Amino acid sequence: MIDTGSTAFMLLAASLVMLMTPALAFFYGGLATKRNILGIMIQSFASLGWTTVLWVTFGYSLCFSGGEGGLMGNFDKAFLAGVGMDSLFAGNHKIPEIVFIAYQMMFAIITPALITGAFVNRVSFKAYMIFLTVWQILVYYPFVHMVWGGGLLAEWGVLDFAGGIVVHATAGFAALASVFYVGKRVNKESVPNSIPLVAIGSGLLWFGWYGFNAGSELQVDGVTSLAFLNTDIAASFATMAWVVVEWYREGKPKFLGLLTGSIAGLATITPCAGFVPLWASPIIGVAAGVACYMAVQLKNRLKWDDALDVWGVHGVGGFLGTILLGVFAYAGTNVVTGQAYSGLIYGDTSFFMKQVITVVAASAYAFIFTYIMLIIINYFTKVRVSEEDELIGLDTALHGEQAYDEGAL
User: Fold this and answer.
1) What is the second-level CATH architecture of the domain 4-383?
2) 0.85 surpassed by pTM
3) Other C-beta atoms lying within 10 Å of the C-beta of residue 81
């Protein structure tokens, strides 16, 4: 029988996660230069449309149909075959499967969109659409299935509450591979066109993240509330940790740094949100703020042109959060394997090692596959735009539009 309260909450959570993709467009759009605002924003909005087509056609089936203990599901639920209004989600028999499909689809939409910040100003829209398609099928779908769909990693005992491995680590290290392949921008001294637009995007992302994390319990109970509060606490502590470190090192508190620190905290708490006690979330938040700030500084010293710090925030944040889950997880029972688990501080070394091995392997796979995939895409269509188009700006060169009237800003 349908739990109407949980169903209503999950519809709200799915709506919040959907909102995160336009929010990401605002966040990245504000960070881009004036001539490349639309070029980066359209990539997020395009994922809203095209990923939905892929998800309904076969993506949901590959992630959540069959394939127990394997790398990928099957096509039994392609085109949502067998899913009706009365079908219940098999994971808890409390919400309609339709609601679960919609909720998970929002994760599929935003994950590849995260990567786009790494190649802002430089990648053609045609190449991006091919990238969006192939990356989902051969990176995102397998990890969704292996971690959340009863596949290999789930049976091994790996945990990821809302996407530290599945979303942030894979997207972040794919972004780093994209930076290395695509190369540096012609004008590397470009500055954000609108920090207020970044603030709007950041605020909406934080708001949507409550659906991202708390909604991942897939019902309303005590864990839902725990994940909600852990999310806010970690993000807040990360925000202030970033500001303090940056203020100390650079002599001024930066608004852009504050906003970036909040996203670092949100990404880092994501795998942990419903699995760690409240007292651990401030520690995780501080670790996120400091570690992600230092990762961005390392990127700057090494002159990696990750223009919008996707690797430093999402890649490092997801990686760190997955490991810290292995440290702080409270004692529980894995719903897939039935095995007891707890964090390293409670003496469970094996669970900690599983988390470390998995996030290292997932990050490495996402990096290597992405780099090779871009090489292959480049044989069919040029991945990087011409220097002339880059100097003109992708808004005009590729899309024939401008974000602002001539002379504005």
Assistant:
1) Orthogonal Bundle (1.10)
2) yes
3) 10
